[in-house]
Write a structure and sequence with these properties.
281 residues, alpha+beta, Nitrilase/N-carbamoyl-D-aminoacid amidohydrolase, seven-stranded mixed beta sheet, 5 helices, 23% helix, globular
Length: 281
Amino acid sequence: MTVTLGLIQMSMNEDPAANLGKALNLIKKAAKGGARIVCLPELFTSPYFPQDVKVDASRYAESLAGPTVKALSKAAAENRVVLVGGSIFEVDGKNFYNTSVVFDDNGKVLGKYRKVHIPHDPNFYEQNYFTPGEGYSVFETRYGKIATLICYDQWYPEAARTAALMGAEIIFYPTAIGRVEGVRQVEGDWQDAWTTVQRGHAIANCVAVAAVNRVGKEGSMQFWGGSFVSSQFGTVLARGSDQEEVVFAKVSKYMGEFVREGWRFFHNRRPDTYGRIVERV
């Protein structure tokens, strides 16, 4: 069994309605191009406001009963696609989250995922805005089991492994990552590291990985795009440019089963030796 993914790589401005409208048009384009599972980028209805230490971002916040979730539900149903709704700035009571909502191809909400790992670095001041989520979810769709993690989660092997142990066959990473003016990449090429770590998650967990980034310049941030899909053995099946586009890739479910049985990474696990992983350092 194969399934075609459509990764929506887009830029955003300060108008949530305009951003949503663009996303809906690109969902339709992805479906017309043959995509059966479509994914949007992180915080796709707003500019990337966490690059500022603290600003009033309340105009971008909405509940899961708000207009964005309703519009995405309708889009999933009209275009007959499973839809990973990137993420939105969710308000729930007094808390604010970075939340991804997943829809089946009838528009039904399958569930939500709230970003667990929250960065706090220059130009990524997300701890000033988001409450961390409390766990992971896997969603059953007609095309297999999928999980969504969000951006900074992609640097944590524990998150990918947990999703795989819960049965995920494809992990989606809605993302907002780029280069920062005036900050040298002294460690090495950031985009190369970003791609490499996620390909590693794919191999170690025998899952396909889809990373969906934004593009464009916002303040001091230049988002590099480069959205890509990795096979279950680390082969990059498709990669985007630094421009707006829909990135398509065909993923084989059989490859995940073949790698898992052939390399036996899960069969030969030794959980009794892993206690150190859950200790605070």
